[in-house]
Amino acid sequence: MVQGGIPERSLLVTIGGAGTGKTTFGLQFLQHGIENGQKGAFITLEESYDRVVQSAGEKGWPFEEHVQNGNLAVVDLDPVEMANSLSSIRNELPQLVEEFGAERLVLDSVSLLEMMYDDQATRRTEIYDFTKALKNAGVTTFLTSEADQDNPFASRHGIIEYLTDGVVVLRYVRPEDFRETRLAVEIQKIRDANHSRETKPYEITNDGISVYRQANIF
Amino acid sequence: MVQGGIPERSLLVTIGGAGTGKTTFGLQFLQHGIENGQKGAFITLEESYDRVVQSAGEKGWPFEEHVQNGNLAVVDLDPVEMANSLSSIRNELPQLVEEFGAERLVLDSVSLLEMMYDDQATRRTEIYDFTKALKNAGVTTFLTSEADQDNPFASRHGIIEYLTDGVVVLRYVRPEDFRETRLAVEIQKIRDANHSRETKPYEITNDGISVYRQANIF
Amino acid sequence: MVQGGIPERSLLVTIGGAGTGKTTFGLQFLQHGIENGQKGAFITLEESYDRVVQSAGEKGWPFEEHVQNGNLAVVDLDPVEMANSLSSIRNELPQLVEEFGAERLVLDSVSLLEMMYDDQATRRTEIYDFTKALKNAGVTTFLTSEADQDNPFASRHGIIEYLTDGVVVLRYVRPEDFRETRLAVEIQKIRDANHSRETKPYEITNDGISVYRQANIF
Amino acid sequence: MVQGGIPERSLLVTIGGAGTGKTTFGLQFLQHGIENGQKGAFITLEESYDRVVQSAGEKGWPFEEHVQNGNLAVVDLDPVEMANSLSSIRNELPQLVEEFGAERLVLDSVSLLEMMYDDQATRRTEIYDFTKALKNAGVTTFLTSEADQDNPFASRHGIIEYLTDGVVVLRYVRPEDFRETRLAVEIQKIRDANHSRETKPYEITNDGISVYRQANIF
Amino acid sequence: MVQGGIPERSLLVTIGGAGTGKTTFGLQFLQHGIENGQKGAFITLEESYDRVVQSAGEKGWPFEEHVQNGNLAVVDLDPVEMANSLSSIRNELPQLVEEFGAERLVLDSVSLLEMMYDDQATRRTEIYDFTKALKNAGVTTFLTSEADQDNPFASRHGIIEYLTDGVVVLRYVRPEDFRETRLAVEIQKIRDANHSRETKPYEITNDGISVYRQANIF
Amino acid sequence: MVQGGIPERSLLVTIGGAGTGKTTFGLQFLQHGIENGQKGAFITLEESYDRVVQSAGEKGWPFEEHVQNGNLAVVDLDPVEMANSLSSIRNELPQLVEEFGAERLVLDSVSLLEMMYDDQATRRTEIYDFTKALKNAGVTTFLTSEADQDNPFASRHGIIEYLTDGVVVLRYVRPEDFRETRLAVEIQKIRDANHSRETKPYEITNDGISVYRQANIF
């Protein structure tokens, strides 16, 4: 859907409601990178290390092996602690990325981090500074974000889509005949890249996310 | 609706408005477990011990007997007290689950627990930590949650669906001819399991929840 | 609409906007009980004793007589005072109910009581404890509740429908041709009882609430 | 539209947006009373004495004369002062009504009074006590109320319609072809009186409010 | 659209979103007055003196000349200062109007003044007192007001339409075929005057606001 | 779409959601100016200097060269710092503009600046004073603004569209058949200039923003 692929060293966000496969999307992004000789890191605020590795394994992606081979780091952080130490994480990020040699980074999810700040101004400033650090770290990053309750095209806190180079929207399409809810993906923004604005159906299968590029939703 | 059944040791939530049968859903989940040789626990913040046992009894599920046989624990807690002592409950949970040998746990409802925290940040942190403890306790848990007033697919506080491995949505479908309100169930998310995304009609009968897998809503 | 009638000793709520006949509904519930040899109590936060007796009288229900015969108590309370002394009311309720021998109780309306608490957490806790006391008092209770401004199926404060055993929704149906607004009733929940989910038209007549069970709304 | 007319000594409210003729409605209510030998009082928080008399005069209602004949009192109050002294007004109300012999009272508008209380709980308590005093004063009262911005059937603060014996809704009906906005009146509630629930068109003419009882809106 | 024209010495408000021509409407109102021998004053909180004069000039209205001839006063005020000194402005208003002999006054916009008060109660009281002073000043006043974001028929703060004698609504009509957005004007209220309730298209041309009285929107 | 082009020395805002090409719009505005012999300045709160230059370069606009030739200034500011020093920026602005000789200025985005003020009144006053300074600086300015989450025609904070001379709305049009999301542009306001009110489709191509003036959206 993106001509020439995702731009290197860009910061992207996947916005979606519960069950739209945001986490799978992130795991797959890393697996593809590692298959192509890139190193990656998966930072999760939602799951334990074991659950992440297990989830990937069930899709046939040998994360355990990747970790042992030094191609992958999986880090489970407590969101409260991450929020409290975000300024030091921010400062150490470039060095950590460089030392490990990560070219792909996933943070699942930025919403859980955002939620830890009660004061709106603090949240905005912290997230702004954090995205700036990510852009400077020389790594291609995919953030996952929960969707706004009322607007599937907006993120929960309505700011991250403005601070990223690209926005992918995952959402439910519920036909009026109540038959079967479908999943639809749309690229809303990729800075400096041409991209289709078509809404495409996708499924979460045993092998990961499958986008049906030739099909239309209905 | 789930291929291979609900994953063991996962944390699930049933979201539904008043009268959609969330509690019945939870009772039935335990009854099925006990019929298959599993032990279970029902924690209620909404009803008394007697009402829970009576409600199950009217569906033909001998909860009194299960309790006497040591296969079931029914605990009625005051939500205020539960909220106040959540950190100690959290700490003791794994031990309690292990000692009793519970493989299935129901909490009815997580919304009433969430409501007891006035401060949003405290609520999120407490619920986050609580779900983490539940995941670690080695038990398959079903939480019930009230639905958002305006969005039947979201929980009342909009967070629990992001912290669970599975989400079941129970909701009303009101046809335009005002004839009869129907009940519809949809699985929104099951982590690491294939599941149908079909919306299926169900009824609350004398025997519990009956999902009509072959039928469509209209 | 309920097979086998309303369960004894249950707590029910009637949700409806202004003018949907909630109060008439409550008066009629007591009149029916008294006609069948049950004693009843009507607690009003909205009207004076005289207005309640007069309103009933105009429907042909001799409340004055019922009071004199010791079959009915009509109590007009100030909502502020009721809110302030709710914990003592709660404590004395079982004794009062037992002494008077009331089998049916109406509180008109719970919304006015809820409104007296400005702090959400206090309101929830007070209402939760109050409904628990009502359930324990050994009496069948009908609360009336104002509807949410935007959602006729939800109560004004969005909590009472989750704490009761049954929910009856009274609402306006406004046809698109602007002809005549109609009234429609729907049972949303009756715990442990089968009930129809049909929406039925009703009218407020000189004889009280008349539900047209055989008719459809349009 | 009301069988047998408006009940004596009841408290009614007219809800409507800006320009729906609420004030005219109130003036006309008094004029009709005076024509039938009743005395009346018009309390305005929105206009000066002169403007009220002039407005009535333009409809052909000789309010100046009524005042001189002792059949009418027109009082312009400052809403801030009225709010501040509401408890004493409340106490003196029955005596004032009795001394003057008023049988009809109009307050234009209750919304402006409600607005003067910033604290919701204070507002509710004050308005509740005020409506109780009005009911006890032995006078038929018409309050005017602004409509909720989003719901023409609800009052601005969403409480007065629950505290009154009758509710009249005045609203705009905007046809989809954008031709001409029409005015429509509907009686939402009259306690202890049968009333039509038809929506009827009306106009504000040189002679006051004209309801077209035989016509339909479209 | 108003039979017999706008009533003298009345207070009117024009409600409209950005770009609906509220300011042009106000300039034109003054120009028409001056052409008919009336003096006028334009108070702007949004533009500089020079921009106002220039804007009028581009419509062919010689405001510079009017000012020099003593027929027009154009005053640019800082909204913060105006809010801070509103009580003294209010007191001096009648004298200022009388001394200058202004018969028409425009304030562009009342919303910017309203915004300067953070506290709702203060805002309401200040605006209420201000409108009362304007009514007493013996001048015909046109206020401009921003529209509510969600409801084009309501003002931004939802109070000014209730305090004025007349309300003119300017709004966008966006046809479903996405062709061309049109502008529509509707008189919502003129106290003591008959007025059409038709929605009429208008345009902002080189000569000012042009209402097409014979045309319909579609 | 604007007859005679954008008025010189005016203040304009482009409102649009994430991915609608607001930044590209701003870059193109400067490139066109420089091609016609005007100097320009690009102030970004969202990107680094390098990213701005790179983004322009990919559209074929040699910003690096423009900077070296002294025809362009690209300044990346931290929004927190800009907010904190806005009053001094405001004071120095006219001098800076004059010294550099800039005739076109872009600020990307005003929303990020607005967000830095937590207090609404402070935000309004600061933004009001800032727009006034921009109008006085003798430069044609294009601000970019995020759109309101629920209303694509309103800015995020709902004030900037009232303080500018022109408003351009960029938005998504999502056809009901879910095929392809399209982009649409509409001029909402240009003070003192005639402009079309047609909604026109546009695309973000390798060469920048392309508006299809002859085409309709559907």
TrEMBL record, chains A, B, C, D, E, F:
Gene3D superfamilies cross-referenced by the UniProt entry: P-loop containing nucleotide triphosphate hydrolases
UniProt keyword list: ATP-binding, Nucleotide-binding
SUPFAM superfamilies: P-loop containing nucleoside triphosphate hydrolases (SSF52540)
InterPro entries found in the cross-reference section: Circ_KaiC_arc, KaiC-like_dom, KaiC_dom, P-loop_NTPase
Top-level taxon of origin: Archaea
Gene Ontology molecular functions: ATP binding
Occurrences of domain KaiC (ranges): 1-218
A Pfam family: ATPase
Keyword ATP-binding: yes
Protein name from the UniProt record: KaiC domain-containing protein
Phylogenetic lineage: Archaea, Methanobacteriati, Methanobacteriota, Stenosarchaea group, Halobacteria
